[in-house]
Write a structure and sequence with these properties.
6-stranded mixed beta sheet; single chain; 6 strands; 4 helices; alpha+beta; Beta Polymerase, domain 2
């Protein structure tokens, strides 16, 4: 079984596998008792958000991490994967900007990957 830090890194790797971007890790242990980390990542589309969440679930299952649940897969604009000590939010950029979880939950621990510039409109 992985410890919390190893699990956090495994989640980030799973996000990056499917090209999630603008990955932010927030240590929320001092703010809430419901989880230790919130990880927010962006996806280019609802289809990609669903695929990213699926990959996180699959990779964690392979590592023996128990998942509490998943929400938001029907619409795919904001998919939440609850791993108990880590809650993963995969969001399309418009939903992420609207809900602004980073501001809601405070300081971020790290930003692993910068946001990708938007593709020019055709």
């Amino acid at each position: 079984m992985l410890d919390l830090e190893e699990t956090k890194l495994a989640v980030i790797d799973a996000l990056e596998d499917i090209k999630a971007f603008d990955i932010t890790v927030m240590d929320v242990r001092k703010l809430t008792s419901m989880t230790s980390y919130m990880i927010v990542a962006s996806a280019n589309s609802t289809r990609q958000a669903k695929a990213i969440a699926d990959n996180v679930r699959e990779k964690m299952r392979e590592k023996g991490i128990v998942m509490r649940g998943t929400e938001g897969e029907k619409d795919g604009e904001w998919v939440l994967v609850d791993l108990d000590d880590i809650v993963v939010h995969v969001m399309i950029p418009t939903a992420r900007a609207y809900y602004n979880l980073e501001q809601l939950w405070g300081e971020t621990e790290s930003r692993r990957q910068p946001a990708k510039p938007a593709a020019p409109a055709v």
